[in-house]
Amino acid sequence: MNLSTVRLLGSIGCRLRVHLAKLWYNILTEETMYERFHICDINIEDEQKSNNGRDISVYVDTLEMVNIEIGESLTIRTDMNGLADLREILNQADEKLDQLNYSNKMDELTGELQNTPVTSHDLSPTQTHDVWSAVDLEINDG
Fold it and tell me: Reduced to 3 states, what is the DSSP secondary structure of residue 66?
């Protein structure tokens, strides 16, 4: 086999792969009737887009893929496993934010309690009486 025959076969192989890929795509889209289903559109707060937030659109298709379009510049296309992983990490982020929020509120409340002076007029006479003071002890010498 000479070099021109190898090049010709390589060229035919490349064209054949392209035709097979197109044929496979046509089979998938025509036989399974490819469809894309819109799930929802939301707008979330985004510190980079302070005025309007960030638009997010979610779609699923008949190839069992999920498309998450974030703004106009980013699309995440993943399968069910990727979706489950994404859901898990977002859940972990949510739990961490809850922990931080709880911790901040507790620190705030603890600070308020420490800075609140207790005065004797806030306490009843029973609460201000020291039951362990030595002055109040009566010693009976039998």
Answer: strand
